[in-house]
Write a structure and sequence with these properties.
Chain lengths: ~600, ~350
Amino acid sequence: MTKRIDAINDFVVKFANINGSGSASANEIFARSIMRMGVPVSPRNIFPSNIQGLPTWYEVRVSESGWLGRRGGADLLVAMNPATWDADIEEIELGGYVLYDSSKPLPKSKFREDLNIIGIPLTEICNAAYTDSRQRQLFKNIVYVGALSALLDIDPIEIEKLFSEQFKGKEALLQSNVNALRLGRDYALQHFECPIGLRVQRADNVGNRIFVDGNSAAALGAVYGGASVCAWYPITPSSSLAETFNRYCHKLRIDAATGKHRFAVIQAEDELASIGMAIGAGWNGARAFTATSGPGISLMTEFIGLAYFAEIPVTIINVQRGGPSTGMPTRTQQSDLLSCAYASHGDTKHVMLFPEDPTECFDFSALGLDLADRLQTPVFVMTDLDIGMNTRLCKPFQWDDNREYDRGKIMTHAELESGKDFGRYLDVDGDGIPYRTYPGTHPTRGAYFTRGTTRDRYARYSEAGADYLDNMQRLLRKFETAKSLVPKPLLYPAEKPARFGAIFYGSTSPAMEEALDVLASRGIHVNALRVRAFPFQDEINDFVASHPWVFVIEQNRDAQLKTLLVNEAKVNPTRLLSVLHYDGTPITARFIVEQIAQHASARTVVPLKRAS
Amino acid sequence: MTYLAKPKLHHPALAKNKVGYIRRDYEGAVSTLCAGCGHDSISAALIQACWELDIEPHRVAKLSGIGCSSKTPTYFLGNSHGFNSVHGRMPSVLTGANLANRDLLYLGVSGDGDSASIGLGQFAHSIRRAVNMVYIVENNGVYGLTKGQFSATADKGSKSKRGVANSDEPLDMIGMALLLGATFVARSFSGDKEQLVPMIKAAIEHKGAAFIDVISPCVAFNNHAGSTKSYDYVRHHNEAVNRLDFIVARDEITADYAPGEVVNVTQHDGSVLRLRKLAADYDPTDRIKVMHYLQQRSAAGEVVTGLLYVNPEPSDLHEHLDTVETPLNQLNARELCPGSVALERINASLR
């Protein structure tokens, strides 16, 4: 008898589909139905750069404990793609389950002996129920969701509720989806012992959290943060960010009296133009942003240098993907830290924010707009594909209605009129940030010439060495000021005294939190610090200094955050140990635990006497 | 160029325009271009046009890219904000600036290197988008600041200062502007102020993408025999199709012309473009015929100047985007932020 996995509210279901087959919405309904039963889920799309035909996967991690990182492996495979069958079967955990379309018999050799096989004739069922070929294809997905509801003991009422929300006002569609769901569910109930060893049980661990992707969250953050100009160029995985901004604006930014738009969204001809437009709008006093990914950053680099040197606010949301070059356009990485930190020729440093999830995408894109105005410089919001394009359970968005936008140092008509001295690059109060004027402010005062060439404090062209140094050193002072404005790192203290520290950031967060828990259960106690911004604050130096060993966990090959920490925070590099995951899949707790445990055992000092 | 600073004193009786400024108020810093540069004449024409149109200097934003032409915004309208951006990218910066504040007047100043080579894409797309602007290309067929390389508008067969003939086809910016949907297309010559000043005035009042190609000889690198962008060459081959008077809506039309000599094009805002016809049957509102005529005359070796095309009912980017009348940069948090109640509704929809 095959040993089977038994688990309640703690397992991974992996769907192997074909791109364009309509599986995405069915799979999402599946994930949401579990969430509606109060059990946290974290789904992830693993998809190719393709519209139709190539393999695509959807992994749903069910975790009553609330671990939202990718776990790795699968306990139940829904195998809908013959092309990837062998590799998919390989990945199932020992004693796992496979649900497949048994309309055509498969030889026994195609299965592993330890697996529990659930054959459902999806094609036959759909061919009998539908005549239209597109319906036969699409409803296969709903039929397997129906079967899963029986096999995993998901309350079908929750799924039907989700249908009725999705197909509100479209009764015919609603009914046909409900029918397809029942076809699958009835078949499973009749032919298998339900539930199987994997089971969903109602819980109360979702709370008031919301279920949203990072790109939508960042887009909404830009709406709330007051961005009125968005210029962008389509690029995976950031395209949906600008598109969602546009959609939200059409709902939330319409002038009630006239029906006109309080926003402008331009799909530019390329990334050079999109950043150019954002900079032009920022120069002229509108809050502006662009959203892009690595290759777009490469193209924008000259303009980013201009915005740094001429001191123009602009917010750049970089949804990172696998690089270099076209790289892995549909896979995730944190590999643009260095290219963003120092974007441009010449000496530059740029502010970066590292959101961990959609909630922080919302917060940081709104904050980025404030910081860009306050610091008069480009601000990068460094999200990634894992956060941006996957639906994540996270804290609800919050907004304080008393919050005012920080428009930074703007000299007004009244101040100019009163004779206040205006030097566009004059540091009047020591924080390195000068005053600026919006074009058109005053008939005879406050106009200046913005240029990428060197200039003196009054914006007059100058290539004199002293003027250049004065300006470049002021820009350093400004960057120092930024330290006090960007979000501080967050400490995750170990429960017991810890010799090891760990620094992590961005989308590594859920896997890291889980890893810390697992490590502690194995007696390896680690204090962790989540870096949320660049420039780095003193807390980071203190953290490194107080641990003999500090792991730096990153999703890139070259340890880019570590490079920045050594270069910019001047931390002792011999204390830093890199844990690097960069195959394009989201980092897992399993990976982190394994790496840290290895390092830890190698560095556990055994006194010589006892060893002998 | 001159090393003498402009004296700050001026005669108290100098004429003021309707908004109370003398012509000097529209000037900028002393030019650092070569003596005799065509670009300085264009700056002077811009100064004259803005003064005559009673435009408050600070309501103008002047933007440029990189190159000799792009330096010129320093030399006119010293009380306007200026932006000398990166090479070939003025159009995107201008587009963004225009989106932020639709109430200012946007002058884009560029050159043939800046707009026909590195910035060809941005030139094309800003015209396509119908950005409300005056886009002037100061066209000398040569890279001046880097000392005399051919630009993309240099005619095939024209010779460099060193005597090398250009083997590449020239890029026809007027032809492109017409194809891309510019609603105001004109060509002039920096040596013809009489033609240029009213042309700039008409372009400024035009509510859409107005493109002016100004042939502007480079005295240092492209004013020799064998060049097709020299003062002599352009004077000999200049075929003006019309002479333009620009009459703002509030002015009364007084001058008399014999019938048939004049075409009045009344624009959307009531202003009138009065064209004294020099070429018989030239109709500047018929885009297809204009393109045909220009190709014909170009093949005959003529440099056609004048107001070549105008659409009296233009539209612009803000109209296409349906943006509010208030400039976006003046909207406050109350107008931009949907507030916490709306956010709670969004949260609820995401559960």
